[in-house]
Prior knowledge:
The chain has 123 residues and is mainly beta. The protein has strands at 2-7, 10-12, 18-26, 30-39, 46-51, 57-59, 67-72, 77-82, 91-102, 107-113, 117-121. The relative contact order is 0.32.
Amino acid sequence: xxxxxxxxxGLVQPGGSxxxxxxASGQIFSILSMGWYRQAPGKQRExxxxxxxxxxxxxVDSVKGRFTISRDNAKNTVFLQMNSLNPGDTAVYYCNAxxxxxxxxxxxxxxxxxxxTQVTVSS
Length: 123
């Protein structure tokens, strides 16, 4: 019913920048919170940043001042601008969205996930 497609990952040198995008499509009535998580090898998935419909944001301490999350509500898209990247940021990055789907029979809000995009920071 709902798909999230990420783009923008890749290989970057320490100190470099990347911009991730995640577009939601499908039977969307509304989207509440959107966010980015990451999972490094051997580690648990962690929240990187999240943003509400009205634009309120929160970040994990390790990315504050370096990463910026934003969204385009008209296009159901969330972005993550990542600056001053370091090897500790290397991980698979996943976007998610809390999406309300309305049919003739029901209204339901579920969390959907993208497939993940690899970010590698290395010289």
